[in-house]
Amino acid sequence: MQALQRSLPGARAGARPVRPARRMVACTATARPIPRATNEQKLDLLKRVECFIFDCDGVIWLGDKVIDGVPETLDMLRGMGKKVFFVTNNSTKSRAGYMSKFQSLGLDVKAEEIYSSSYAAAAYLESINFNKKVYVIGETGILEELDLKGIRHLGGPGDADKRVTLKSGEYMEHDHDVGAVVVGFDRYINYYKIQYATLCIRENPGCLFIATNRDAVTHLTDAQEWAGNGSMVGAIVGSTKREPTVVGKPSDFMLKNISASLGLRPDQICMVGDRLDTDIMFGKNGGLTTSLVLSGVTTEEVLNSPDNKVIPDYVLAKLPDLLTVKEMAMVAA
Amino acid sequence: MQALQRSLPGARAGARPVRPARRMVACTATARPIPRATNEQKLDLLKRVECFIFDCDGVIWLGDKVIDGVPETLDMLRGMGKKVFFVTNNSTKSRAGYMSKFQSLGLDVKAEEIYSSSYAAAAYLESINFNKKVYVIGETGILEELDLKGIRHLGGPGDADKRVTLKSGEYMEHDHDVGAVVVGFDRYINYYKIQYATLCIRENPGCLFIATNRDAVTHLTDAQEWAGNGSMVGAIVGSTKREPTVVGKPSDFMLKNISASLGLRPDQICMVGDRLDTDIMFGKNGGLTTSLVLSGVTTEEVLNSPDNKVIPDYVLAKLPDLLTVKEMAMVAA
To answer: Chain B contact for A217, CB < 8 A?
Structure first.
């Protein structure tokens, strides 16, 4: 701790931490290459950040394989008393449902450490004291999270096989007590659901339109890229001419929700991701500390390209690089 | 004819017609109320316009009933050698298929007088000498019009019952010879179609993305408003992040197509509609002469509201008001 304080003037108790990494970035914004974090910078990161938010693919795992050293890194962070969250825009599963993915990879996580966009939708409704019904375009994850918050819902998988024939005089009834439509990824999207959601938004006064995310692409199988929830949301935007409230990435609801529930300033939270234009941009827009890992889609070449304007506070080859300062960090903590 | 020439100086042979109605509008743009066309103005309209493009609902019929006098008015126009087109953004039927609607109402029209957005899609592809395959989200109307132009296609109703389960390792093949995706209204929209269209647009180099229209609402039953093709198009925009080429209203493709095929200047074509913000705006944007009829959704109060900035060249209570100058017009013709 003594050594750490000497080398990092901002680390003294009570002072708002000076942020050497950001300072470095500010001084060398146009200087390339952007260096990987030194041990001193890693210690600084671990000192002033109390909560780590991880994008998963490219950070925690690659495809179906956990990146070597990740379990030990997570153990180290938890051992230091840090909070960790695993963020996914996947809304098809609840937090509990998503745990099986982690467990199948041998990762020991708690449901509360997972922040899925299905959970974000329920947390958002809870945050505004919502007390009407929700019509759901989406899968079981959203329904399960709504149930956990005691929010009434209809739609979802139960409407998968409903058909609209548009025969002469056909009329669709809808529930006038629906006060929100939540749209998540739905492999069984159909015209019945589109019309039902449209009627609620268009005809129920004050009806909310909430999107778990608007991702163009989702990776529900490893074999190829699949059309994402941008399609389901686009369908409802197209018939209602309304823009949704997005609760998953890249909206800042999740960040504010985590920050408020933990009582932390945004800069005490670090977004760790492998994508500059989504993860790192998302963290920066929310005022978070940001760490780019080079174990996913972003190469050092892209990071250092003059075209790249998104400069993370820290750069790590991979998350387990933090283990190089494990002993010093544990002593400091 | 002599009387007409005396009263309308712009009507002399060979001169580009002066447009009294437009002149009137220019002088009195802020003067309200905007008067209904006088007999002199009706004669002027009939003299210099060679082609009439009609929106149907509110102009030709109201719901399931033809507006009194419309058949006689159409007979008069045809008798004067005018071309008439009935425009619909409905893409579910081909022009031939749409004729049954006219016939059921007792209206005698030819398939070539109907300009549906299904036809527009095929005409657009023909206009660019398209020679690859088309993947269709939509109904039989589009397929029939493509067949008439000899354009190969796949998708459409044949994909209505296809399912994507996204089971582990699932991979969707697609035809790399698809060079255009056409998206029209599709009551059997599903995720298979969304993903197929997305793959073609995303992975086939140069693949076109064509929308018959982006209407939020469609009136496929009289009982209520239904989510329109804006939903199907929105779904594909959401997963491809590409904007479509729209061939139906309010794009100007149809106007250019009609204008070119008849060898007419835009101002020799009159758009007749009951909506200021769609029909009349559409005509004005294309440089057409415009006539508003008050037999549909637009009231005189809305027309004369200071908030209304869309001023039609002519205002008629209803289309058959043209019959008041029938004898003079037939003599003049």
So the answer is: yes
What is the rounded average pLDDT of the residues A306-333?
92
CATH of the domain at B272: 3.40.50.1000
Give the lowest-confidence range in A114-123, A159-168, B263-272. A159-168
Cα–Cα distance between B70 and B54 in angstroms, integer? 11
Domain end: A209, A225, A246, which one? A246
Percent of chain A whose predicted confidence (pLDDT) is above 70: 91
**Nearest 5°: CA angle at B65, between B61 and B68?**
75
Residue in chain B closest to A92 (alpha carbons) equals B166
The answer to whether A288 and A271 are in contact (CB under 8 A) is yes
Q: Is A55 annotated as a binding residue?
A: yes
List the single range of B141-155, B170-184, B225-239, B276-290 with lowest mean pLDDT: B276-290
The pairing of strands B208-211 and B245-246 is parallel
Structural domain includes residue A103: no
pLDDT digits (tens, 9 = 90+) for B45-87: 999 999 999 999 899 998 778 999 999 999 999 999 999 999 9
Give residue-wise pLDDT tens across range B87-103. 999 999 999 999 998 99
3-state secondary structure of A180: strand
Same domain for A129 and A220, yes or no, is yes
With CB atoms and an 8 Å threshold, state whether B239 touches A230. yes
DSSP string, B170-229: ------TTEEEEEE---TT--HHHHHHHHHHHHHSTT-EEEES---SEE-SSSSS-EE-H
B63 touches A at CB < 8 Å = no
| B257 and B239 part of one domain | no
Question: Would you please indicate which residues of B are annotated as catalytic (active-site) residues?
Answer: 55, 57
Same domain, A146 and A46: no
Residues B238, A223: C-beta atoms closer than 8 Å? no
Instruction: Tell me the residues of chain B between 149 and 168 that have a Cβ less than 8 Å away from chain A.
Output: 164-168
Are B155 and B230 members of one domain?
yes
Partner residue opposite A188 with nearest CB, options B191, B225, B234: B191
Query: Quick one: B137 and B235 in the same domain?
Result: yes
Write out the residue range of the structural domain in which residue B40 sits.
2-9+33-89+250-332
Task: Give yes or no for A238 touching B (CB within 8 A).
Answer: yes
- Whether A147 is a known active-site residue: answer no
Q: Are residues B265 and B319 in the same domain?
A: yes
Judge whether A141 and A213 are in contact, CB under 8 Å: no
User: Within a domain: residue B43?
Assistant: yes
Boundary of a domain, candidates A212, A246, A280: A246
| Pair (B232, B266) in one structural domain | no
Is any Cβ of chain B less than 8 angstroms from the Cβ of A105? no
As for how many domains chain B has, the answer is 2
Would you list which residues of B are annotated within the binding site? Answer: 55, 57, 249, 274
Residues of A in contact with B186 (CB under 8 A): 191
**What's the pLDDT at B277?**
87
